[in-house]
Amino acid sequence: MNSSIKTLDEIVEIRKNLKQQNKKVVFTNGVFDILHAGHVDYLTKAKEKGDVLIIALNSDSSVRKIKGELRPIVPQHERAFIIASLKPVDYVLLFDEETPYEVIKKIVPDVLVKGADWAIENIVGRDIVEANGGSVETIQFVNNQSTTNIVQIVLERFNK
């Protein structure tokens, strides 16, 4: 397993140390099911907003709650390994809830990032981050890629 994949308790300890070193911690979350260029672009831009990028990855059970029984396509241990192996990503943790609210509450990142498809006032954890002097930012997607779109293309091409 990749040494960048941690438990929440380990991330909380790492966060304490990073705070003492005055490192700016950036946090985002997501499913990251079938990795595509849009994901890599998003994570690269997120990392530019601070010193350390922490990704909370929805567990398989969490994904099923959000996306339905047919998802995820790629199991959580593989998704975690892939995301943790990307250059901009420093740490990955899995979470089982539908939202990362409790994770954000424990980590209290300096910068909370989501895609620009989210209105800032609807971003989960915004209250915690802003109350602690942090910022909440969105990143514009550069293309229309998504796992859903990729699955649709595969179905169209192979159902002929």
Q: Could you characterize the architecture of this molecule?
A:
This protein has 160 residues and is of the alpha/beta class. It has a single domain (8-158), classed as Rossmann fold (3-Layer(aba) Sandwich). It is 41% helix and 18% strand. It contains seven helices and five strands. The chain has a five-stranded parallel β-sheet with strand order 3-2-1-4-5.
Mean pLDDT: 94
The low-pLDDT segments are none
Number of DSSP strands? 5
Q: Structural class of the helices, strands and pairings?
A: alpha/beta
CATH first level: Alpha Beta
Q: What do we call the CATH homologous superfamily?
A: HUPs
User: What is the CATH architecture descriptor?
Assistant: 3-Layer(aba) Sandwich
Strand order, largest beta sheet = 3-2-1-4-5
Query: Could you state the order of secondary-structure elements as H and E?
Result: HEHEHHEHEHEH
- End-to-end gap: 39 Å
Strand content of the residues, in percent?
Answer: 15-25%
Shape: globular
Tally of discrete structural domains: 1
The CATH topology: Rossmann fold
Main sheet overview = 5 strands, parallel
Q: Helix proportion of residues, in percent?
A: 40-55%
Count of runs of 4 or more consecutive helical residues? 7
Radius of gyration equals 16 Å
Q: TL;DR of this structure?
A:
It contains seven helices and five strands. The protein has helices at residues 8-20, 37-47, 60-67, 76-84, 101-107, 126-131, 147-158, and strands spanning 25-30, 52-58, 91-95, 111-115, 135-139. It starts with 7 loop residues before the first helix and ends with a helix.
